[in-house]
Write a structure and sequence with these properties.
alpha/beta, 7 strands, oxidoreductase, SDR_fam
Length: about 270
């Protein structure tokens, strides 16, 4: 059995990058606390990981669109006497379409999930980690943090927030023994685009997608090495570097072209 005291908390841990990260932690004999909305998916993932890696996997079914949900998760973990040694903020969603046509309530949910939950979990666990002078936090951001994203304006905005926020907090706590690592994936083969109704976008329909296992490996290795930030994938590194040189208006126009729907209709569906 894994060391009882070594736990990683992963939001969005039942699919995509989050699930692949869960496997890597389990492989290194971390016990896990997985948070997602579906208890069925949580139970199935937990059973597979326990059987394969012999670690303890606790599950908490919570909808992180709800502003109080992260606090409830924290209280539940606290009540079980579990110390979180590594926090992975991974759960996130987007919405595709011209901003004037998208659903504001869906966008407010996305802001709560992509920003609110990250900020709450980071604050609660960072306070504990700084007190102990040990701990690791992985913020799954996005290449979208580095570039404006027409037809995904709110999603890119939330990821820019996460990258900027993490860089600032890292500076504040740099003497604490706690590391904060940012993972910025590009287009990855997950359920994200389905949930965002984004399969019509050219970069999704016609472009290549990264394997979530490769992205998770990049993030995990950077986290364990205590690195500040990793952009996953060579072409994404190139795109991030170019976007830092070109004017934002030009980058936005290029991204708009890449993000255009194959059917030509930019309205949200």
């Amino acid at each position: 059995m894994a060391d009882q005291q070594k736990y990683a908390l992963i939001t969005g841990g039942t699919s995509g990058i989050g699930r692949e990260l869960a496997k890597l932690f389990a492989q290194d004999q971390y016990n896990l606390v997985l948070v997602a909305r579906s208890q069925d998916e949580l139970s199935q993932t937990a059973a597979e990981l326990q059987q394969q890696y012999g670690v303890q996997v606790k599950t908490i079914a919570k909808d992180l669109f709800e502003p109080q949900a992260p606090f409830a998760v924290y209280d539940e973990i606290k009540a079980q006497g579990i110390q979180i040694d590594a926090l992975v903020n991974d759960a996130g969603q987007g919405q595709y379409g011209a901003f004037t046509t998208t659903d504001i309530n869906r966008e407010l949910d996305i802001i709560q999930l992509n920003i609110g939950a990250y900020v709450i979990f980071t604050k609660l666990y960072l306070q504990e980690m700084v007190t102990r002078q040990s701990g690791k936090i992985l913020q799954v951001s996005s290449l979208g943090a580095e570039i404006p994203g027409p037809l995904q304006a709110v999603y890119h905005g939330t990821k820019a927030f996460i990258t900027s926020f993490t860089e600032a907090v890292r500076e504040e706590t740099k003497e604490s023994g706690v590391t904060l690592t940012i993972l910025e994936p590009g287009v990855t083969d997950t359920d994200f685009f389905n949930k965002a109704s984004m399969e019509r976008a050219k970069l999704v329909a016609e472009g290549s997608k990264a394997d979530p296992a490769d992205v998770a490996k990049d993030g995990y290795e950077a986290l364990m090495a205590g690195k500040d930030k990793v952009v996953s994938g060579f072409m994404n590194k190139v795109q991030a570097a170019i976007s830092n040189v070109l004017p934002d208006s030009l980058v936005a126009a290029q991204m708009h072209k890449q993000g255009e729907p194959v059917d030509g209709d930019e309205r949200s569906k």
